[in-house]
Amino acid sequence: MSFLHQLRYHLRGLFRRRNLEGEMSEEMRFHLNQRMAENIADGVAPQEASDRARRTFGGIEQIKERCRDEHRRGFLWIEQGLQDIRFTVRQLARAPGITATTVLILALGIGANTAIFTVVNALMLRTLPVREPGQLVVLDGRSGSYSLFDHLRAEAKSLAGIFAVGHVAERQMVARDFGAKDTEPLIIQEVSGDFFSVLGRTALFGRALVGDDDRAGAPEPVVVLSYAYWHSRFTGDAAVVGKSVAINGVPVTIVGVMPEDFFGVDVGIGRSIQAWCPLWLKTRFDDGLEAARLTTNAAESTWLSVIGRLRSDTSLEQARAELETIERHWLVAHGMRVSKRPFRLTPGERGISRLRGAFRRPIEVLRIIAGVALVVVCANVAGLILARGASRQRELAVRLAMGAGRWRLMRQLLTESLMLALLGGGLGLMVATWGARFLAHLMLGSALDLSMDFRVFGFAALIAIGTGLLCGLLPALRFSRLDLVTATKGDSGGSTQRINRALVVLQVTLSFVLLAGAALFIRTLQNWRSHDYGFAREQVVQFAVNTGRVRPDAAKVELHRQLLVEFEGLPGVESATISQGGLLGRVNTGGDFKIPGELGSPDAKKPSAAYLHGARRYFETKGIHLVAGRDFDQRDDQPNSPRVGVISESIARQYLVGVNPLGHLLLAQDGKPVEIVGVARDVDLPGDFRPAAGADNSKTHVIYLPYFQQPGIWDARIEFVVRTSINPRALVSTLRAAIRRIDGEADVTDLGTVADLLDGRLHSERAIAQLAGFFGSLALTLCGIGLYGLLAFTVARRTREIGVRIALGAEARNVVALILRQGLWLVVVGCVLGTIAALSLRSVIEHLLYGVSAKDPVILGSVALVLFTGATLAAWLPARRAAKVDPMVALRAE
Amino acid sequence: MAEKTELVRGTLDMLVLRVLYRGKLHGWGINQKLQQISKNALHVEEGSLYPALYRMESKGWLKPEWRVTENGQRAKYYSLTRTGRKQLEAEKESWDRMASIIALVMES
């Protein structure tokens, strides 16, 4: 209180300097007048009264001066602070070029770190915009089958509410009530009826979904729109409520629009969701595979994310124990295996995100890279401040000699670096806004809420101040300890040089580490790009066809066959096939299989495999080499033909040892036998975000079955693969036209060459490679600037000595060599230290590398070479300048 | 006129605070009041009074305020702030202690 009062008072005093003078004069005049009046009352003549009053009062000006002093003493620190700032502004403005460079360097360093933090904040730290997010809990992935979820919903007493969400999926919509005839994609998340009420959010207008919307015989299909979609697609028209659209051919009524900040629970994908539908609508969306998961008791297919809200009187552990018990009883009652692993229940205030697990390590590495780059920035800026300070050394020494306190001087130097850092921080925030968006796009390719909140601002302010202190402290300490005698003589001491040399070595060392990292990540990306997945990547185009209407199975098969024939006949198409579920398709279905006769290694666990479905010429079109047997052909394209299958080599190796697999039987996941007619070379099934296998040698078992023999997977969405002899991009319009000829409502989506699709999956590899490259080049540039500054300073200091050398007969190249040697020696030390640092840090990045070792001598060698080249370039200019020193001028200079 | 006594060093602040404890006053008024209470025994120089006022103001003990006097003139009035009041108590306490110690020594 008293402090604030004082501060307010001082600030007032400060900004009203003139007013203070006026007040003082008036106050004292009043005093004199009173005294004079008193004197007159005592019977003294007016003139004499006035003189006497002045005499008693004493020297007015002296008193005023003392008042001013007293007044000022109280807020000396503020005034000095302002003085420092004014002084600093003048200093910085005097060298605008260096100031701008410094601020820019700092802005890049601070901005990059803030950008990464912004993404981390958005992805990992923010709490959901729902009621009491702290009460939310995420249930174990094991509870993600619909039947178990349903059971938990009925039984769990420790939860005040529970809901389930499905995957975010793209569906086809025709906005019929809005006069549209064409299909347009609609990104939907299907949620259980309690979704909105458990989250405690209501609609902006209209209503949210309720429990009754989500059951087998719900009165009418309904959908709730997200604010952003409603705003962009329906131009914010409130009359949408009550209107109807067709989703996958089903008429659905729009019942409400959610508020702007609401995006559900899925961080990362949530922002792209355009609408929410009840889970049970899946059965109407003709989504063959997924609908079955709702109606059958398929406990082993866990596809839902289940979230609950803890009752306020229940602890996490109590709830966990209860849920575990319910789960176990249910599993036992259904004759299923009970897992030994305890049931997991985790806090859900930050929502769920598949991105988090996948990106934790890449982001961690990026943070380290950006942090190291920031240290390089600090060292560089410290060097710049030192160099500038050295040219001001005499001034500083004079001020010290005239009695300026060392603390005061140090404070002034710190003010300078802090001010630079804050300017850099301000600019850095702009860099961060842009950088965070770029980073999120590069890494996640998805919509995150990247708005900056107090955390981001706090982080930026903190590292700006930290940076300012870090790069200011060294120069400040250095100059506040100036030796007056030598400094005033104009000999800018060798100790500044020593510090500066150490700073350059530090920069080279860290740059070496950053460049090595960049080279490794770039090599990793290249290796992934040329990785052999076991199937063709060039000239193969993959796409999905969404057929609009609901059809009976027979009509569906007919349509799919028609499409296939149509595609086969297109000009430029060499072969076409259906490729449902996998190898870059949308659904990766896994399941058990069994080989009758128990050949091979009898495993305690039932072996499982990925199931992929294809039509005729599947292996030819996909470019998967068949080791034995035959491709799928016309015979297999009939629903009632003899059931056949192709297995991957890995299955044959493990379970059919010493037997000819061809003609052997295999029990597929539905328990029905198929005859093995072929053995295919192993392939890598790229996981969701990065190629899963490859790094280790465990290939996934794959079982390929004919598409037309598997009624369960016939779907409104069907995936095709086409091998073409022409430019794949030229094929798009031809394909689209062909589809329209067959089914006017159908549309092509997700079209791309396999190479493109594979590249698209390298999000995080690409992001790391690019960012590491960026930071590496930034560090390299800074090294150059630092070294240049140091040598230029050296040359300036040694002009006289160099002049003497030249006068005594030294040749230009000797002088150049002298200066170059000085600079390159530091680079040698830096590279040696850098190699040591890079080798000891390699465990941090090794798990992100592919096909290259962190110890790779070629990479380390080329990094050193790059640094040497850069350093030579940077050292060349000062060296040339030294060689051109005119001995006469140099010797006369002082 | 009684003989004037010089102030004990460091007590001016305390006296001014004490005078202002009764209510706000301008510099002249403080000067008069001190004379009056001490029955003209104290001599306070204007040259010390005003710097003291400014010092206490800058420390936040006094709050200045321009007001019109009974005679219709503008004058700068000072009043005690809360910290000023606390300061007065503290100074009075230490003065009392000091006085009693001095008395003890002198009467021994």
How do the helices and strands line up, and which of them pair or pack?
The complex is a heterodimer of chains A (894) and B (108).
Chain A: H1 2-15, H2 17-41, H3 46-57, H4 60-73, H5 76-94, H6 96-125, E1 136-139, H7 146-155, E2 159-174, E3 184-191, H8 195-199, E4 205-206, E5 222-225, H9 227-233, E6 244-247, E7 250-257, E8 275-278, H10 288-295, E9 305-310, H11 316-333, E10 345-347, H12 354-391, H13 393-401, H14 406-443, H15 454-480, H16 484-488, H17 494-529, E11 540-546, H18 553-568, E12 573-580, E13 589-592, E14 608-614, H19 618-622, E15 626-629, E16 644-648, H20 649-655, E17 665-667, E18 673-680, E19 702-706, E20 717-724, H21 731-742, E21 747-753, H22 754-760, H23 763-797, H24 799-807, H25 812-840, H26 842-845, H27 857-883, H28 887-892
Helix pairs in contact in A: 1-2, 2-3, 5-14, 6-12, 6-14, 6-15, 7-11, 12-15, 12-17, 12-23, 14-15, 17-23, 17-25, 17-27, 18-21, 23-27, 25-27
Chain B: H1 12-21, E1 25-26, H2 27-37, H3 46-58, E2 62-68, E3 74-80, H4 82-107
Antiparallel strand pairs in B: 1-3, 2-3
Helix pairs in contact in B: 1-4
